[in-house]
Amino acid sequence: MLKYIVKRILLAIVTIWAVATITFFLMNLVPGGPFLSEKAISPQATAALEAKYGLDKPLMQRYTTYMWDALHGDFGDSLKQRGRTVMDIIGRQFPVSARLGGVSVLVALIVGVPLGCVAALKRGKFTDSFISVVATCGIAVPSFVICTVLMYFFGVKLRWFPTMGLTTWKHFIMPVMALSFYPTAYIMRLMRSSMLDVLGQDYMRTAKAKGLSGFVSLFKHALRNAILPVITYVGPMLAYTVTGSFVVEKIFTIPGLGGEFIRAINGRDYTLIMGTTIFLATLIIVMNVVVDILYKIVDPRIKLK
Amino acid sequence: MGKYLVDIKNERLSFFTPAGEVKALNDVTIHLEEGEVLGIVGESGSGKSVTAYSLMGLTAHPGKLLGGTLEFNGHHVENMTEKEMRKIRGNEISIIFQDPMTSLNPVYTVGNQIEEVIRLHTDKNKAEAKARAKELLELVGINEPEKRLKQYPHELSGGMRQRIMIAIALACEPKLLIADEPTTALDVTIQAQILELMMELKEKLGMAIIMITHDLGVVASMCDKIAVMYAGRIVEYGETDDIFYNPQHMYTKGLIRSMPRLDTTEHEKLVPIEGTPVDMLNPPAGCPFAPRCDAAMKICLNQMPPQTDLEGCHYTKCWMIQKEQFEAQKGEA
Q1: Is residue A278 one of the residues assigned to a domain?
Q2: pTM of the prediction?
Q3: B39 and which of A91, A135, B226, B266 could share a cystine (Cβ 3.0–4.6 Å)?
């Protein structure tokens, strides 16, 4: 176990380094820069700004400087948001996105897993078909459509929920619905197919032959085996969801990290792009390790190497 | 004769598949007394397992019991609800399956899976159930039971896993143990060990066994009675000696001829049964074995042979014996 963790940490460092390097060079290949705007700035002012942030130096030198600083925990200042460091921005926006994303993933699990099980148990019946149709819709309909529809009905027509911000629980309902729709649908489908597979296994017949009730068979013997694909999916999905969705944050005016990320790219806010990318990469790596460990806990046959 | 432990009368069971009705069991009648061993032999799809599963109320979807009575230990299985059935399963009637590699749940320890059934059917507490589980492992000949209880199925060999399946099946000292090809998935030396263990446990615990197999060698050595099944029918039924020394049905004869023996002269060829099993979706009108039978007569193709009772419990369903009896009567007259 210790050996595994050490190995994963070393691998994570290499991965993060690769992600950072690729992002750094790709980002600089894209034309434009942080100080271009509709309002023409004098060349002298631009030069002064570039000098201040070190953008006038050769690319390789900027790369080594950035990596060295990053290694010491300094991710620099935002180029566009004066006086705020990248860490400040992530530290302030991430909790907003994380809360929203966390709740959404939780909802997706609470709704998706049982419905997937039900669909598997009622295979071929109306319930199964109904759930499958809903699941397909959930996967096919893009989130901006869902956001707009929700906003029109619940926000404008019925006036049940506020349409912007994220202060009370009522504010959460629509964005959570919009964010959790896709993962819920995906989990339902995963759960259904893996549950069908498990229900046909010999050990389920053994469970029945022991005289166990359908309820115990399902929750003790089937669920633990069937949940594995869902764990695989939820890990990385959680990392993506807690870092925020640009579309949902934009539509519901939520000050989250997802919107920040896109704004950083559009504004060529180099340090913020790097910061958010490394942050997301780290989160995904951590989630993958968590998934592996969960796997080991759920299924003793799996060996962590 | 007293009351039977198992008394299946005229059982009819069909699977309603999208392709049509498959008559899996036709008029199956089986009696079994306490402590007896019955072997059900037949080829794949002949209805061996379906018969046994239906007695446990484990008929798989889309199977449906259409007629007949199934009595077990005083219970009328055909009328029992699922809830009532659950109290019997794993308690009064247990089963061990063909493939021990997949019959145990991979994510729970052996101990957990044995204790589960003990706690379900008895009011033993956790510690008592554990003690009982340990006792069971010793009973089925597993060394270091304490350690095995904490292990997962994948850490054990096939033979060991089948022993654990037996331990689970015997946990509540059932009256009847159904063994559905218990040794098919094991290698030969382990097969013998498992069969020996089963017989030993039968002597110790006094339960009855229904042994489902297509290995005639197994039934010859273990069973008191044998039912030979073909296409969802029992074509011949009798004491083991009746079946082996006085087979009457052409199928039984064929089966015995196709088995290697020690008492034959060298270089004698085994005689296989030619042809393929019946298409259960479109069974023939007459005797299902007629298309493969060397001695088939006209009537065999058109009409189902009736049951001919012979000595003791021995009976068969074949036109040949009807003909012989008829001719014998004519000769006397």
Answers
A1: no
A2: 0.83
A3: B226
